[in-house]
Automatic annotation (TrEMBL):
Keywords tagged on the record: Lyase, Metal-binding, Zinc
Family note: Belongs to the Gfa family.
PANTHER family: CENP-V_GFA DOMAIN-CONTAINING PROTEIN-RELATED (PTHR33337:SF40), GFA DOMAIN-CONTAINING PROTEIN (PTHR33337)
Annotated organism of origin: Acinetobacter rudis CIP 110305
Keyword Ligase attributed: no
Protein name per UniProt: CENP-V/GFA domain-containing protein
GO molecular function terms attached to this record: carbon-sulfur lyase activity; metal ion binding
Amino acid sequence: MKGQCVCAATQFEVELQNHHVHSCHCSICRRQTSGVIMTIDIVPGSLKFSQQAQLAIYDSSTWGERGFCKQCGTNLFWRTKDQSYCNINAFALNEAPADLDFGLEIYIDNKPDFYSFAGQRKTLTEADVVAMFQADPKA
């Protein structure tokens, strides 16, 4: 699948791991997007950039980093530093699959009270996510 930032200065191809959309309520995602980000998991190593002169990587934690376009600011992906896991902005895809489903909310304990999504889905707390992705559990 192909995708890009808002201004098209950063373009990529990717293979989706599944069609499950998840949202993140962490403070970084909320600040970065003025809300939540909706993402889709991709096959590890499948993120390939056809245009990347404006691509920037932000070192956002001890185990994760975020990619965005320096020109327009579009948030494109979050991945582990070893690149064993990566998800992309679901709305950066040029044509999203018709069968996407919203199945997971992460950092649910960081979600402000003034909004919520309808329906039921799996949720993970900050501690759940940290336990899954932290490179060194003793750190």
